[in-house]
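Course assignment 3, question 2. Fill in each field.
Student: A.L.
Task: Predict the tertiary structure for the chain below.
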Amino acid sequence: MVGTRGVPARYGGFETAVEEIGKRLAAGGHEVTVYCRGERHPEPEYLGMRLVYLPAIEKKVAETLSHTGLSVLHAFRSKIGKEGADVALLFNAANAPMLPILRTLRIPVATHVDGLEWKRTKWSGTGQKYYRAAEAMAVRWSDALIADAVGIQDYYRERFDADTVFIPYGAPILTSTDTGKLADAGYEPGGFHLVVARFEPENHVHVAVDGYRRSKAEKPLVVVGSAPYADEYTAQVKELAGDDPRITFMGGVWDQDLLDALYAGALTYIHGHSVGGTNPSLLRAMGAGASVLAFDVNFNREVLGEEAGRFFGDAAELAAQVEAAEADPGAAGDRGAAARKRAAERYVWDDVAAAYERLCEDLLAGRRTRKTIRGK
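Answer field:
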């Protein structure tokens, strides 16, 4: 499993997926190797997964690809030493330039293409062109493409006439949370609105803050998150907040128990993500029973359906939704319960891992090839 920061999962959706899928494959008797970067786990294995740590160039444009390149070279050396992998799972289409090396090694490979990365405003025109080219390379050189949302499947079918395997993420279902953590942070259940997001324009943190500030809400807004390489956008968001005493920026929260308590205790969770397919933060909020106000794009409607959330397209619509939730907290609570039920039925990690296992078996047996994904 290559192309992410690895495990233990401390960062984002890809890392969580690697951990949840990898530990289940290991428990099922498979030998799982995860390539990692960053903070080291003290043991050579984690939850049954073998960990290989390699460095990366710590710059926005080079970090992921440099680490993946070293990982693939390590895999090449292992293959020469007769210890090579039967199947590779590559995460992030941005890593597609490494695929020809894996092909040279005759290692069948599936690429999890993620969302529409080229739409992210943090990338310049050159960056956008790179991501569009990387998508085409993923189609050309992968034996299978993994899409975590039907909307992503539609995109690859329409743009590349390429088939994908639909495997979503799983949702953690919270049956209880540490309310003491919430109290220590100064909040009570149902007593605040919540945003959890990396500070990037396509996550619409600015719309969340602007919409809330326009509202007559009495309950405070708690904003969790930050982002590397995003100082200008962070300044913009905080300028929109102004001196509104109702708005608190907590920065990154790495205490998972506290984060779960925030999700479960929020009157509403405001979800502005728009380009990433099935979003793990949205699934976590649903699994916690949060009442979701989501930016109105096809990915979010696909995950929430029509009963488990409300949608907004701009700050004015969000302000109205926030006020409506405070006026009728019972209805907001009912939507949160519907969201948890939907997550528990549709986004199950055991099912996700089983789908990855079937895919790996198909790759090893040659039942999925580049011809297959190109629809020929």
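Instructor remarks: The chain has 15 helices and 13 strands. The CA atoms of residues 192 and 213 lie 14 Å apart.
Grade: pending
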